[in-house]
Automatic annotation (TrEMBL):
Keywords: Mitochondrion, Transit peptide. PANTHER family: ALTERED INHERITANCE OF MITOCHONDRIA PROTEIN 9, MITOCHONDRIAL. It comes from Patellaria atrata CBS 101060. Belongs to the AIM9 family. Residues 523-535 have a biased composition (Basic and acidic residues). This is Altered inheritance of mitochondria protein 9, mitochondrial. Its main location: mitochondrion. InterPro entries: Kinase-like_dom_sf (IPR011009), Mito_inheritance_9 (IPR051035). Residues 523-547 are annotated as: Disordered. One of its GO terms (cellular component) is mitochondrion. It is found in: Mitochondrion.
Length: 547
């Protein structure tokens, strides 16, 4: 049972126009936006946060001296935070952010987010909401938190459909100028920003002026924070940085992959062969370490794209606020959690969702919320595509002129960097996936202008074995993509609460269809089409039901 917390008397939180502000209405501790078709119970528990809602409300009132009561509280669920927007009787709105455990170590993530926002405020003119209060421990309200002013203006995704092409172009140009300010900052190490006088117990840090420093990287790929995949440091000590060069950084990515391989040597034995044994994962990861630290990191193309860069990790329309009167004017950028100093190539694939063709296609198909719907009702598809093309060109021209290192990384051959994106997740993806990346890199080695010979040189026996295993991996991936497209979900099977019941029924039907198809194959002589294999290939909860 969740503990019940009474709202403080000082707030007098009732209104003739609004329901009483109470735990029953707000449900401040639970995740309520949706459910998952895969490991739903674990996912919801990972987003449950127990804290003192009473104390948070009191702190909100204290931070707005002219306010007497809270007249409204809206709860918004983010990917890694729970956000409360408090409207006060003096017209002011304050925002409180409570981190989920899946966001990483809350003391570090909270400390770094606050320091990063203050660093940008000190070094740039990027509009960022002012922080009013924060805590990186649980002593005040039972959880780490950040309280800040509400962003000025309106969220870009709500007004984008009503903007014309010229306004779109000017807005994208303004965003490119924001990115210019980020990419012009210079750093001597990779990691995350903290205040120089922070109270955290990390021993390694790199100075960054009098007030700030670079400390451990708070990105989730470097921390044991996934409830579905516990880590072990028995083979390698934790390696979260900071790192002074690209060789150290790439080695840390491999260390993260090693930490996710279970200690039990028989782990994965009940999976299909493409998943790979513990020993096979460790062997492939050490090959990756040799390639990344001794070969790829020495290549001029990688060196030139390794400039330490501080960049917002999610520059999408929901995190950008603009002026209602002139939507080409950016009034605020929000959600700076996980912003870290990375090699610039780490951001090469990042695109604002307003100009990302794949995002727009997914929104049209109904797979994710569609901010283009009003445009589609009012304009022809040809006009929309022209608008998209103009915005994409505007963004590219802006990056080339104002952020040349980022632009250069974007147009570089991604085969230099693909291995870096796979190594931290080999255990969850399967050995066949990382082996395929190694094979592709070996095949392209000379064409990429890399010296010598790739450290991965598979035997004929390994190639034959890999071919069969990779076929199973591809079947698994195609099934997953088919389910995402059919059910309009993300890769974890998430659907909003109001659409979940229908998605659950469709998922059950899809699973039954898959099993019938498999039985037909077995009946017609495919001896590999066993029920056990079919269930293991199914990407989500194998019985087609919630846990």
């Amino acid at each position: 049972m969740f503990s019940r917390v009474q709202v403080p008397q000082i707030s007098n939180l009732t209104s003739t126009l609004l329901p009483p502000l109470s735990e029953e209405v707000i449900r401040p501790y639970e995740y309520t936006d949706g459910h998952w078709l895969h490991h739903d119970l674990v996912q919801c528990q990972a987003r449950h946060v127990q804290f003192n809602f009473n104390a948070l409300c009191e702190r909100i009132i204290e931070l707005s001296p002219q306010a007497q009561r809270i007249v409204r509280c809206d709860k918004k669920e983010g990917g890694f935070n729970r956000v409360f927007v408090f409207s006060l009787d003096n017209g002011e709105r304050l925002v409180a952010r409570i981190p989920f455990s899946i966001a990483g170590p809350a003391r570090y993530t909270t400390s770094s987010e606050v320091a990063t926002m203050e660093y940008f405020r000190a070094k740039t003119t990027i509009p960022i909401p002012r922080i009013l209060d924060w805590s990186n421990d649980k002593s005040r309200i039972g959880s780490e938190y950040i309280i800040m002013e509400h962003a000025q203006g309106t969220q870009l995704h709500t007004i984008w459909p009503r903007m014309n092409t010229h306004q779109h172009m000017l807005c994208i140009k303004a965003l490119a100028k924001v990115i210019q300010q980020m990419t012009q900052l210079e750093f001597s190490a990779y990691g995350s920003i903290y205040f120089a006088n922070n109270s955290l117990a990390f021993t390694q840090k790199v100075g960054l002026g009098e007030d700030f420093c670079i400390g451990p990287h708070i990105g989730i790929r470097f921390w044991d924070c996934d409830p579905l995949s516990p880590w072990s440091y028995n083979r390698k000590s934790p390696n979260q940085g900071p790192w002074s060069n690209i060789e150290e950084y790439t080695s840390a990515l491999v260390d993260a992959g090693v930490a996710q391989v279970p200690d039990n040597p028989h782990a994965g034995a009940d999976e299909l062969p493409y998943h790979g044994s513990v020993s096979e994962h460790l062997r492939l990861l050490e090959i990756c370490r040799s390639i990344l630290t001794n070969q790829l990191s020495k290549a001029p193309q990688v060196i030139n794209s390794s400039i330490p860069t501080l960049y917002h990790p999610d520059l999408h329309a929901r995190n950008i606020f603009v002026s209602e009167e002139d939507p080409s004017q950016i009034t605020a950028i929000i959600d700076w959690q996980s912003t870290s100093i990375e090699p610039v190539f780490s951001y090469a694939k990042e695109e604002p969702d307003m100009i990302d063709s794949s995002v727009r296609d997914a929104q049209r198909a109904g797979f994710i919320p569609n901010m283009f719907e009003e445009m589609e009702n009012a304009e022809s598809k040809a006009k929309q595509e022209k608008d998209l093309e103009i915005c994409q060109k505007t963004f590219a021209v802006g990056l080339r002129a104002w952020s040349p290192a980022l632009f250069s990384a974007k147009i570089s051959d991604e085969n230099y960097f693909r291995l870096l994106r796979f190594v931290p997740n080999t255990w969850s993806m399967g050995a066949a996936a990382i082996r395929q990346e190694l094979l592709e890199l070996t095949r392209r080695w000379k064409g990429l202008g890399l010296p010598g010979e790739c450290a991965y040189q598979p035997s004929e026996e390994e190639l034959v074995k890999h071919k069969k295993e990779y076929e199973d991996f591809e079947v698994h991936q195609r099934l997953k993509l088919w389910l995402q497209d059919s059910l309009g979900s993300n890769g974890d099977g998430w659907r909003p609460a109001e659409a979940f019941e229908a998605a659950e029924e469709a998922h059950k039907a899809a699973f039954e269809q898959w099993m019938r198809s498999n039985r037909e194959e077995l009946r017609y002589g495919n001896e590999e089409a066993t029920e056990e294999r079919a269930r293991k290939l199914w990407p989500w909860d194998g019985n087609g039901k919630l846990e």
